[in-house]
Known about the structure:
This protein is mainly alpha-helical. Helices cover 69% and strands 5% of the residues.
Amino acid sequence: MFAVKTCLKCEVSMCQEHVKPHLELPAFCEHPLTDPINDFWKRKCLEHDEIYRYYCMDDKMCVCNACTIEGEHSGHTMKTLKNTMKDLKGTLDKQLYRVDRKYSMAEKKLQEQKEKERQNKKFMDDSEACFNRLEEDMKAKVLSFIIRLRECTRTHCDTNGPAIQKNIFRICQDQARLQEVRCGIESLMQENDPFRFIEAYKTTGKQCRRQLRKNMFYPEYVDMETEVLVAIMEEEMKKFLDEELPGHILTAINSLFHLSDLEEEEEENEEEAAEEDDDDDFDDSSEGEMRSEGEEEEDEEEEDDEDGRDPSELGDDPYSPGEEEEEERSEEEEEDDDDDDEEDEEERGV
Length: 350
C-alpha cells in the first residue's frame, strides 16, 4: 500500500486504510493532513527535532514550538505557517494583478503596433497605386510631349517640302532636255555619210543648239537652318518641365499624403475614445487601490531607512512582508511614472 496523506501533527504518512481514523474520528479533526511528504526531515528543526509550525518575522525563517520559547527566536514576532502562506498568497495576488495590468498594457501596445503595421502596409499599397497612376499619367504626358515635338518637326519639314519638290521637278526637266541633246549629238556623231550628216546636222544640230542656249533652272532658296525649330522645341520642353510635369507629381504626392492625414485623424479619434474609456474605468476603480499622500510619505521614509541599513543586515530569505510591500509600492509608483511618460510622449507625437 502506498501513502495517500501525511499528518503534520502525528508526523507520519498513511495509506488509504490507515488514514480513515483521521478522517472519521473527532479526536483527529484538528490534525492537518497534506499530500504525502517524502522529505519530512526538511520540515523538522535540526536543533529540537520538532516539526516547523511557525515563521519568525524577525529572522525570516521557519521555527518549531521550542524555538518560540527558548533560544535566539524567543520574544520575536511569530506567525503560523498557514497565516504566512496566506500573506504570501495575498502578495502573489497583488503581483498577479500587476502582471495582468502590465500584460494588458503590453497587449495594448502590441495592438497599437499592429495597427501601425497595418497602416504602414496600407500606406505602402496606396503609395504603389498612386505611383502606378502617376506612371501612367507621366507616360501619357511624355507621349503627348513627344507628339508635340514631332508636330514641330513635321511643320518645319512641311514648310520646306513644296519648294524642294518644285526644285527637284525643274532640275529633272533640265536633265531630261540635256539628255535629249546628248542623244541627238551622239546620233549625228555616228553618221559616216557626209551628205546625210550635213542634212541631219541642219535640223538636229539646230535643235540641239537651241536647247543648249536655254538657261538652266536655279533652285529656289530653302531655309534648312533649325535655330527656329530648336527655339520652338525648347519652349515646349520648358512648358512640359515647368508646368505639366511638376503639377502631376505634386497632385500625386498631395493625394498620397492626404490619405495619410485622414488615417492619422481616424487614429487620433480612436485614441481619444480609448482615453475616455480609460478615464471612466479609472473613476470606477475602488478607493482602496488609491494611497493617501501620508502613506506615500511613510513609504518614502521607510525606503530611506532601509537604504541606510548595512547590506549585511539584509537577509536573502524568501519572505519579508515589509520589504514586499515597499517593493510593490515602489514598482507601482514606477508604473505610474511610466504611464505619465507614455501619455506625454503621445501628446508630443500628436
